[in-house]
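Before drawing any conclusions, I looked closely at one protein's amino acid sequence and its backbone structure tokens, quoted below without any editing.
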Amino acid sequence: MTVQQQTELEGLELSDRSKDQYQQGGQDKPQLPQTDYGYDEEAVATGRYRHYPQGPLGLAKRGMDVLVEHGVEERGIEPRPEEDRDTLTFWSYLPQTTLWAAFNFNILSFSEGVIGPALFGLNFKASAACIILFTLASGIPVAYCATNGPKTGMRQMVQARYGLGYFPAMIFGLINCATMIGFMSLTAILAGQCLSLASNSTMSYNVGIVIAALIALILSFVGLRALHIVSLTTFPIMIVVFIALTGLSGSKLHLAVAEAAYEATGVTASGVLGYGASLIGFTITYSALASDFTTSLPAHTPRLPLFFCVYFGLTIPIITITLLGAACQLASYSIESWASASEIGVPNLIFAISGSGGGARFVMVLFCLSVVANTAPTIYSAGLSGQVAIPFLVKVPRYFLALIVTAIYLPIAIAGAHSFYVALENFSAVLSYWTALYIPPTLIEPMVFRNPVSRKTYPVEIWNKIGKLPIGLASIISAICGIPIIAAGMSQSWWVGWIARRIASGSGDVAFELGAVVVTIVYLPVRYLERKYTGR
């Protein structure tokens, strides 16, 4: 090859095959036409060859490749092949525990504890019983769903297609997106309030919300590895912070069972059932994103150790922090400064407990970071559910979806910044209703119809094939039967069903319990018939 030919070759952007043909052809082969592309020798050598057109599009593609090359996760809901997963070691389980612990070792869990006495009028014994029992029960589906991630290599809402059907999964994916956007709005409000208090009220709620949202966006933009690093960092810090908060309030927590607390609260069927619905919605909705964070583990990952890592990482923080929140709210009925702070908001209550000085302001900054540890992985999963709900978004890189999700929930958080209590009560209670339609098929399919769970019983090659996935008759029929029962068992300020009205005080919320039972009873036989006659 002459020097002139070599110079021409370096000015072309060719595929590896085309380049070889050009080199082998010598003078006998016609010269290839001149193009406007450049040839990236380093990219070819490392197997990351890309074609970059000139102009803004080429610049954008080059920028996206640079992001991926520097560690930004690009993969969306496409199943993860075995060769792209991590090696299983003893330490592989630690991030799974700390991720879920960081998810819930924060001020939102504290707020969930506060609403037991504040909104449902329950005393400490009743609040504690609800918190422990409903949280322990609600954590089981979440941990089980997480263990199916390594077995299938698929994200949670993609797995749902194999039981719900392609199109019903789109609907549930959209509902799941709405759920997570609502949760992120609530957490952003709390973060904004914390930063406002940390600045001695020189910073508005809105500015604090925006700052917290931007930090969470950056972390979710990078991907799962960044989320694990953040959880490993924030989890131990928040343990220290909550221990310190418990120490500061410890001398006054006995007031949670004082006379003033008992006069302000009590035990009612409607209160227990209503708070139970709120706690179920607070915990069990994680089952719709559980395996999003476990697909990086190899398929031979033992189910039991992973189950307990996720289960205890999820339930222990929720139980401990919500119990502390309930106790502090009950004690506030005997402490005027705490009571006045609690009426403003949960961050104000914590600020008052911490002493309202410089140390308290530092504590509020740490609480804001704890909120970010919850929001960042939620943004990550919301983007994945969005790809299931709107399939053409699969063509959009995962990290860009983080921008879209943030652009949606941020205005909602700003709009609802001054009505947090009401928003949390209404939102967390309603969450449990749709999960009554989602959870039974999600558990029955892998445990009954596709057991044992593997890439054979969940064939990866049909993950996006409408004609080979279930039609969805079982999920549709069970939902049609379950929705009227859920409506009859609901007890909200805007709707009380006829079953709820028949409970002792006339407003007992049993919608989730009854709805889940009906959906289970209907789904089992109908799904059996669907598989028998359609072969899907």
Observations:
- Residues 105 and 246 are 14 Å apart (CA to CA).
- DSSP finds 22 helices and two strands in the chain.
- The longest helix spans residues 166-198.
